[in-house]
Structures are given as structure tokens and as C-alpha cells.
Amino acid sequence: MRQPRAWEVILFILGMLFLVLLMNSAAYFICIYFFRMQHWYSSGYLFQIITTIFGIILFGITVYIISNSTRKRHLALWEAIIDALRKIARGDFNIQLNFQRRDHQFLSLVENINHMARQLQQMEEMRQEFISNVSHEIQSPLTSIRGFARALQHEGIDKEESRHYLEVIESESNRLSKISDNLLKLTSLESHNHPFERKHYRLDKQIRNIVLTCEPHWVEKNLEMEVSLEEAFVFADEDLLSQVWINLIHNSIKFTPPDGQIHICLQKGPTEVSVSISDSGIGISHEEQMHIFERFYKADKSRTRTIGGSGLGLSIVKKIVEMHEGEISVHSQVGKGTSFTVSLPNWKDKK
């Protein structure tokens, strides 16, 4: 519990002095009235002693009543706090403790409990949403696998149909495996237990190598790949950042129609290194851009269902960038393309 402030102590002392004067004054007038009613007469000294004793008695009774009332109010507040903590322990976070201004010494405690309950409620809602999304994402490929597996059991299926069904089963199995891998990876990154080993290396070389690795994919769609990379060093986990570039470049290839363009630019500034990956693909609406980094969010569900993807890739990308004290942003127009920009601290002085 916090220490009382100086002005609070002064107010308390003044309040006690006022209460003493008030009770002594009340005792004085009560004694005068009582003496006159009884036709009693006493010396001034004796009258003063009597009124003083009576004033002390009134003061004690008043303090007892006030303290007893305050104690009951504080006891009720403590019981409400304990009851709220018990509800939180049972998983019921829908609580809101109220307090009165005169209970200001409990203000910090009550506000922190209310804040904790709100945060836990939000986490519970996120957990339920996460479970629902995982169940939905897993149920879809499982339904396909089960359906095509049953179809394979029917007699009279030719080899071509059988091969097609097996390809679908394999594709859906790979999709399940990818969902599982991404979930484990995202969980590991968020738990802060994921290996994080920084080192100095050439970022431009890393991106160029990844572009060359992805060459079969963009050549297959006859995409025009423009690469403009300035020489730049970063102090980062090379394996983790490679996942960022692979994910963003694969997304650009995936959502860009044949004969489109992709432009990758690396620029070095005085305080940061900026990497932008732009394409002439299908684009993302403004409303969808606000949710694009959320787990399991898919901007175009009809396309991603056929193209593939679990909606976890950009969540992983954002988490990795944040681990490197960087930022990622998206700018897009429907039908005109999308541009992702990753900004990382410039560690040129630490090479």
C-alpha cells in the first residue's frame, strides 16, 4: 500500500482537530441545556471538567462509528476483490470492480484488477478465435482427404481418376503439414524461446540468392523480375530473415497473373535499410490491409483456397521483423498490385 502524501496527512490532522472542536462544542451546549433542565449549578472549573470529559466521550463514540463504518466498507471492498480474483481463477473474466472516491487508497489495486480482467478477457477471446481458426483450417483438408479416400474405394475407377484423387490427397496432406509447421514456428517465435542468433552479413546478397532460388517459379509464369539492390549490411538472424524474403517473394509470384511484373528494391538510408517487394498482382482492398498480418486471415479466400496457403505466413513475417526491431507495411490497390516494405535498423557502423 502506498505511503500517504503530505497534503493528505495535513488534511487528516485538520479534520481531527475540527472533530475535537466540534465534539467539545456539542458537549458544552448539551451540558448547559442539561444543567438548566435540572436546575443544577456548579463552579466554572467543575463545569469545564464535565464538558471536557463529555466531549472526549462524544469524540470517541464518533470516531468509533466512523471507523466501524469505514472498516465495514473496506471489508466489503476486500470481499469484492477476493470474489473477483476467485472468478478470474475459474476463468470468468467478465468483471468490473467499482470504487468510491473516499476509497482512493484502493484506487490503484482496483484499476489494476480491472485492467488484468480486461486483458485476460481479450486473451481468452483470441484463444477461442485461434482454436476456431485452427479447427476450420484443419477440417477443410481433412474433409477433402476423407472424401477422395472413400472415392478410391469404389470399384470402376480408371487409373486417370485414381491418379487425380491421389494427387489431391497428397496436396491436402502437404497443406496440413504446412499448417502444422507454421503453427509450431509461430508459437516458437511468440514464446521467445526460438533460437535468435544475430550476425553481420550482406543483405543484398541474401535477397539476390533467394530471387535466383525462386527463378523457376517466376519464369514459369513469364514474370518480369526487376531487382535493384544497394550494398547493405545488417546485424540479424540470417535464417529468420530469409523466411521473410521467401514468404514475401513467393506471395508476389503466387498472386501476380502471368506476364506480370515484380520489382524488388533495397535502399540504404542513414538510420535504416529498406526493402520493398512490389508486384502487379490482384491487389488487396483497404479494409483487408488492416487485417493482413492477423493469424489465419486470407485477403481473397476464393483464390487462396485454390492457390493454397494457411494465412499464417504474414503473421510469421511480421513477428520476425519485430524481433529485429524493424517495421513492415503494405500498400496496395485492387487490380493494380501490392507493395510490402520492410524497414530494418542500419547497422553499418557495427560491421
Topology:
Layout: H1 6-38, H2 44-89, H3 107-153, H4 159-190, E1 199-202, H5 203-213, H6 215-220, E2 224-229, E3 233-236, H7 238-254, E4 261-268, E5 272-279, H8 286-289, H9 301-307, H10 313-323, E6 327-333, E7 337-345
Parallel strand pairs: 2-4
Antiparallel strand pairs: 1-3, 4-5, 5-7, 6-7
Helix pairs in contact: 1-2, 3-4, 4-10, 5-7, 7-10
β-strand amount: 5-15%
Give the overall pLDDT as a whole number: 80
Q: What helical percentage do the residues reach?
A: 55-70%
Query: Which regions are unreliable across 5 or more consecutive residues at pLDDT < 50?
Result: 301-307
Any idea what the radius of gyration is? 36 Å
Protein architecture, described:
- This protein has ten helices and seven strands.
- 17% of the residues are buried.
- A hairpin with a 3-residue loop joins β6 and β7 (337-345).
- The longest helix has 47 residues, at 107-153.
- With 351 residues, it is of the alpha+beta class.
- The chain has helices spanning 6-38, 44-89, 107-153, 159-190, 203-213, 215-220, 238-254, 286-289, 301-307, 313-323; strands at 199-202, 224-229, 233-236, 261-268, 272-279, 327-333, 337-345.
- It has three domains: 6-92; 130-190, Signal transduction histidine kinase, dimerisation/phosphotransfer (DHp) domain (Helix Hairpins), CATH 1.10.287; 200-350, Heat Shock Protein 90.
- α4 runs parallel beside α10 (313-323) and α5 packs across α7 (238-254).
- The strands form two sheets. It has a five-stranded mixed beta sheet, covered by helices on one side. A two-stranded antiparallel ribbon has the order 1-3.
